[in-house]
């Protein structure tokens, strides 16, 4: 089969797994997810694709270069790779809205890595939940926290969790709704809701939307890629994905 760019295969002898990035001196160049590159001869049945032996060949020159598909997170979609069986590592988010937004942007990446995102019902009992989860080198945990700012209740809860295989990141917004750029939902900025008032209900009243459910449907429908959300959320999620997909020797 043609060794098309971004095709992910495994070298049958060494177990090295990577995407096709080019050819050198008659050998195919593979690059793994950490950026390491190795050259392999195009020998018969020298590679594995989805566990099956394949023989790679250099594609014939094409007048039109293949188009790379970009995922919603901005990553290059890899060809010939199906979703992995779920790994033991997890990413936790605070609620179902957070989970839906993460799926909308990073779902393709997470399925390839075999990482499941699970919503929590808040983080008040985070320390006990982490203990029950039992993190370890091959069972890593990442947690995305809303409103993680110095001096907040959330920051005090996060400080109570210390484990080398747990990474907790967050964004400064009161709710994950605010992590969506306001102009995407027709606002110049998110309304400021007085302390003590339910935030989502206050937003709905300020912008003239009947219920939080209606507002959330509008917000989620406005998100198509990482370009629709704020940088702190992007940075936090990328750190969590890196944390839970690190392979320990």
UniProtKB/TrEMBL annotation:
It comes from the Bacteria. Pfam families: DUF3097_C, DUF3097_N. InterPro entries: DUF3097_C, DUF3097_N. Residues 2-59, 89-245 form the DUF3097 domain. This is DUF3097 domain-containing protein. It comes from Actinoplanes cyaneus.
């Amino acid at each position: 089969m043609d060794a098309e760019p971004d095709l992910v295969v495994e070298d049958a002898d060494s177990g090295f797994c990577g995407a096709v990035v080019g050819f050198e001196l008659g050998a195919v160049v593979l690059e793994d997810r950490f950026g390491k590159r190795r050259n392999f001869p195009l020998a018969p049945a020298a590679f594995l694709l989805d566990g099956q032996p394949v023989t790679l060949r250099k594609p014939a020159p094409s007048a039109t270069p293949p188009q790379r598909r970009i995922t919603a997170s901005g990553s290059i979609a890899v060809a010939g790779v199906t979703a992995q069986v779920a790994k033991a590592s997890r990413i936790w988010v605070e609620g179902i809205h957070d989970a839906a937004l993460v799926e909308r942007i990073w779902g393709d990446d997470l399925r390839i890595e075999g990482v499941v995102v699970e919503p929590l019902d808040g983080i008040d009992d985070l320390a006990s939940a982490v203990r029950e989860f039992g993190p370890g080198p091959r069972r890593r945990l990442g947690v995305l926290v809303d409103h993680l700012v110095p001096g907040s209740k959330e920051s005090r809860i996060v400080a109570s969790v210390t484990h080398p295989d747990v990474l907790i990141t967050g964004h400064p917004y009161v709710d994950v709704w605010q992590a969506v750029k306001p102009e995407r939902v027709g606002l110049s900025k998110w309304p400021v809701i007085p302390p003590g008032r339910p935030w989502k209900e206050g937003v709905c009243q300020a912008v003239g939307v009947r219920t939080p459910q209606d507002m959330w449907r509008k917000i989620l429908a406005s998100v198509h890629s990482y370009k629709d959300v704020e940088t702190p959320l992007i940075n936090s999620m990328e750190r969590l994905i890196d944390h839970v997909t690190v392979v320990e020797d």
